[in-house]
User: Fold these one by one.
Assistant:
Number 1:
Amino acid sequence: MKKVTVYCGSSKGNNPVYVEAAKLLARELIKRNLSLVYGAGNIGLMGVIADEMLAADMSVYGIIPQKLVNIEVAHNGCTELTVVETMRDRKWLMAERGDGFIAMPGGIGTLEELFEIMTLNQLAYIHKPLALFNVNGYYDKLLEFLRQACDEGFLKNVQLDSLIVSDQPEELMDRMVSFQSSTFPKG
């Protein structure tokens, strides 16, 4: 694994624990000499993790639609800044460039990206590890819902079980490195 795509909020959230978690995750990526692929924002948790990586002279690959560049949220300090036309283009390029994925706390965009990667893995478009950085129990209710989806027969246990969940960056990365792709059953 060389590049990790991190999905996270364009907000910092209401609790300072989220900013500290973004810094901790960046430090873990730095320790492992990994590059960051992300949504190229200079605001919120996106800006925090990028700034931490850049301060350590690590590679940061930002991918952003022109519309967001126009409203001045692009991080101009990125090692490489790729401007695309649409959010769909951004998501696909982020999925393509990352060797693994981590969803930090974030809003609806982060959730969309999380489910996109779950779907791409399920349908075998990609075979890459996906992790939830469950800072402060942020994803606990979502995990309950996904368990219910399994119980009701709309999600396979293997799909949920392939999701790596931890509130510790080191554990997330260890489990991502040892990830073995599963073949998801049809139906």
Note: The mean pLDDT is 95.
Number 2:
Amino acid sequence: MNHLKEKYSIEKFSLSKVKYPEINFNDHPVCLSDETFRERKEKLLNAMNKNGIDLVFIYADREHGSNFEYVTGFVPRFEEALLALDSSGKSTLFLGNENLKLAKHSRLQSNVVHVPHFSLPNQPMENKKSFKDIIGDAIQFNGKCIGVVGWKVFTSKYEEDQQLFDVPYFIVDTLQKLAQENSARVTNSSEIFIGENSGIRTINNADEINYYEFGSSLASDCVLEALNHLEIGKTETELASFLSKFGQPHNVTTICATGDRFTNAVIYPRKKAVTLGDKFSITTGYKGGLASRAGYVVSKTDELPNNVQDYLEILAIPYYSAVVAWLENLKIGMTGGQLYNVIEQVLPKEKYNWHLNPGHFVSDEEWLSSPIYSQSSTILKSGMLFQIDIIPSVPNYGGASAETGIALADDSLRKEIEANYPQLWNRFIKRRNYIQQELHIQLHPEVLPLSDTVGYFRPYLLNKEEALLFHPNS
């Protein structure tokens, strides 16, 4: 792997004038097809059968509703909800006061049971049954293996951690009591949805790629527009106003921070003005991924604070070299462990202090799960959506970030996208051409950029004509 250090050595990168990526602002959110929802249900039933699960209860609330939404098409507003699906395909929705009206719009035909316990505090709870009786009267538990799906897989090395549940206690307690009374058993089954090796949500069809590309590209356009308005004296709140668009729901906390972050424990944009030499970071995200950038509010090196005049050589270029290595080496058939090793060789963890996975799945959530970790044997497959997520940390230096996403698509999937989603396909081709011709980053054919700023990084944020550029033949 030493050839990687040479191939992506910092001497092969420079801050150079680069053709500017366009902002498109696609204003047509995508609605998934009925066929996709039928396919999702079949994938879930097949996964249940493979894992010996007779019945699943899928939990949802506003923050943790993506597995539920995957099969119903909606998330509960304000309240909790459950979806029960048995191996025969019969489904039951358990909804609170304010979500009952959504049941008729569900993309999964289901019986509906009103559960006042899921409603907001002090709303009417004039039910004649206990929570346990409502669930027990609606669902047969006899002798079944029951899977509970929250939003997390516990990958701790400790065996007892494998059966933790990330679902409210009153729900888990009730399901366990009903199971015990009916010779059934309850297990954490989130892995069948998001497990990095075979989770049903980790592989996307052409319709889903089209759906998630909308949010990923929208996040990218928002961040680029905000950076284009970045000026000395502008406030975080002024710049953050560019990070929301078309009323679309965010899947990550918005970041727009100049200078030191988290002062007085504030994690949201403040009425704080940008000053020359500030560290700066900005992030927004929608379904399909986020876009993030970090650098310094300067136009040239001598405007940097005196103690970080070598920011490009010490952090920005080494980080960007890892981004380029990630993009050029990513391909179908490699393992997550192999991609992890690429980053470890180019940007050693011991020196650059990154500690999270250098890349992860994206979906409705910003972070679904990740197969990219040391010694991972998970094979990267067609239909997977990934986000670059390498976060170096060098003491006394501000950050560097060019986080964006891509899709992997084999020849068959690419042909399907080209035939059925020609506008999406044209965007993919345009982006690939820009990345390869303007940024000199060579992508495998299966790598489809989900936004216009993949691989584009301006570390000096007031210098809007220059970006880091790879010179592979130098």
Note: Residues 52-188 form a domain with the Creatine Amidinohydrolase; Chain A, domain 1 fold (CATH 3.40.350.10).
Number 3:
Amino acid sequence: MPTHDGLVDWDSPASWDAATAVETIARLAEQGKADVPVYSIGADRRVATRPFEVTGSPLFVAEGIFAAEIVEECRRRGLLAGAYALRRPRGTTFLRRLTRDLAEQRKAPKVLIRRGVALLRAEPAVLRRQTGLGAEAARAREILRRVAGMVAGHPHRSS
């Protein structure tokens, strides 16, 4: 696992298994179900898998900081309806991340604040990277409108 300041760097794409993510998305798209990993940020590792189903859904959303890393491959395999990088005020992202991480006790508060400030500063570069990998920058309301339009225009899967 990649490290930063002596800690596992969960914000690095190298901490993620992109090939397995694409295969899981393919299984979900084709079969409607797959086992997905469960990570423990506090323990710095994957701790289990759990079944996940989207059977009957016309679309599903795969989200996360590394989603843009697999846009090209998902597009190539015909698995992609849309790819978006959420654009919101950096302060909002910082506060939401910090609130979540403190509530989940992911790390010591001092570590979470220090890392949160670093991510706050890096956010414009992260957005540029995600759009460079094929995601379109958009605000949450616009993304929700587009996804709703895709769902409305899709026949309902019954498998």
Note: The chain has a mean pLDDT of 87.
